[in-house]
Amino acid sequence: MQVKISEAKAVIINCIKAKLVPMMVGSPAIGKSSVINQIAKEFNLKVIDLRLAQCDPTDLLGFPSITGERAGYVPMDTFPIEGDEYPINTDGKPYAGWLLFLDELTSATTAVQAASYKLVLDRMVGKYNLHKNVAIVCAGNLETDNAIVESMSTALQSRLVHLELVLDVKEWLNWATEAKINHKITSYINFKPGALFTFMPDHTDQTYASPRTWEFADRFINVAGEDSPTLLAGLSGALSEGVAREFLLFCKIYKDLPTIAQIIESPSTARMSEEPSVRYAITGSIAHHATEENLTKLMEYIARMPVEFQVVCLKETVRRNRNLMKSPAIQKWIAVSAADLF
Q1: What is the DSSP letter of 196?
Q2: Is 164 in contact with 2 (CB distance < 8 Å)?
């Protein structure tokens, strides 16, 4: 079944509590690892990121050893087993357990997949039981995405709870706001939602735009600066040249926008463009600069926009500062417009 990332997170948490093993599949770079890290942080679990495509069967079953006249298998120290002490977090306190993330399961060889049967169903590495506070989550790519994918046996299929992740632009914008992603990026995605994820299985560019690569772009902008001559090359390397050029053209629009100071000084007469791309840009700028002190003036300007842009602007504003939801200016707008911001 297809689920959004937020829905997948809730299902995975319930699977973990029920001692079941969820299996996430989805296109590359849409945020599977991010879900894992969110859950681990929420429940104070140490993530063990194991890429099964790079493993041999002995990595899961244990390494052969001889003791006296008997041979056996010694488990790799990758896996916490019964009796192991909890690792220490960066704050000096112990973790509550571990989250074993078996990534690239669908890219693993048939032998490695077979070796994982005992691990995911019986929670054992060879003859050793996993620690009781180890949660297991699997992930892999879709066969339709032209990634390296091996067929999964029916025996392994029946050991997992299967979820197909799909990307939701609204969810990503909420995450991007909380992560303080550059407001020009979120304005651009508001303007052109399809630019969030441009992956095609048969693409010929060296890369593509995705939640992961937009985060790369944000990090590059933060280091290089918004006026750096290296921006086009750096963003092209993260997003593809076509997306990078379109985004930088969008950013140039900002230079022609009225400043926040001009809007606050004269909200009823400050410039208001008819061009949709400019309107999306100004909504992002307003949302980025809105405070409790200037919001009343900004709302006068926002009220001059078409109603659909008012909604976009206020949604972005409240995403960036939830406290502004309580402001009289926004509450009055909600009462008059009867619109839900979430």
Answers
A1: G
A2: yes
- The secondary element (H helix, E strand) that includes residue 81 is none
CATH number of 2-166: 3.40.50.300
The residue among 63 and 80 whose pLDDT is bigger is: 80
Check residue 104 and give left, alpha or beta (phi > 0: left; psi -120 to 50: alpha): left
Q: Where are the alpha helices (DSSP H) in the chain?
A: 5-17, 32-42, 57-61, 110-115, 117, 154-157, 169-178, 183-191, 211-224, 231-239, 241-253, 260-265, 276-289, 295-302, 307-320, 328-337
Q: What is the pLDDT of residue 126?
A: 85
Taking residue 246's Cβ as centre, other Cβ atoms within 10 Å add up to 17
With residue 162 as reference, give the H or E element that holds it.
strand 161-166
Query: Each residue of 273-307: pLDDT tens digit?
Result: 888 888 999 999 999 899 999 999 999 999 999 99
**In which residue are the tokens 């304005």 written?**
187
Spans of all domains in the chain? 2-166, 169-337
What is the separation of C-alpha 159 from the centre of its chain, rounded to a whole number of angstroms?
A: 26
- Global confidence as pTM: 0.78
